[in-house]
Amino acid sequence: MSPRPKEESPSGFIKRIKKEMRGKGISLRTLAAEAGMDPATLSRILSGKQGIPTDEAIIELAKALELDPSELLSEAGRISQDRHDMKLLLRTSSKLTPDEVKKVLKLAKQLAQQRSSRKGKK
């Protein structure tokens, strides 16, 4: 028996990916390849046997499906629909190289840690 996923994929997330695949005539194998994922992993996600992938994987899926990454991240429950700044950041990041995205993520984590440490000192 396989272990239960830590965080189940929301049905809206799964339905959205499947809808986009059908609408664009993209097979599971093609989508997985374009998103840099293993087809078996994508299959488990879409069948609900595996939890939500990483934010980075969701962004790559969105790019492969020609979607705004914030839409798919929202469907996955990762960001709220009204976070305009996050949407702008995600749209902008889709134009970056993988190395540039890693640098942005590193900076964001550093800023979050600084904020946390400032709150702890008050």
For this entry, give a set of tags:
122 residues; mainly alpha; 66% helix
Describe the structure.
With 122 residues, the protein is mainly α. The protein is built from seven helices and no strands. Helix 1 crosses helix 5 and helix 2 crosses helix 3. The radius of gyration is 16 Å and the shape is elongated.
**N-end to C-end Cα span:** 48 Å
The residue ranges in which pLDDT falls below 50 over 5 or more consecutive positions are 1-6
Shape from CA axes?
A: elongated
Order of helices and strands: HHHHHHH
Percent of residues in helices: 55-70%
Radius of gyration: 16 Å
Mean pLDDT: 84
- Structure summary, number of beta strands: 0
Biggest beta sheet attributes? none
Q: Estimate what percentage of residues fall within beta strands.
A: under 5%
**Count of DSSP helices?**
7
How would you classify the helix and strand content by structural class? mainly alpha
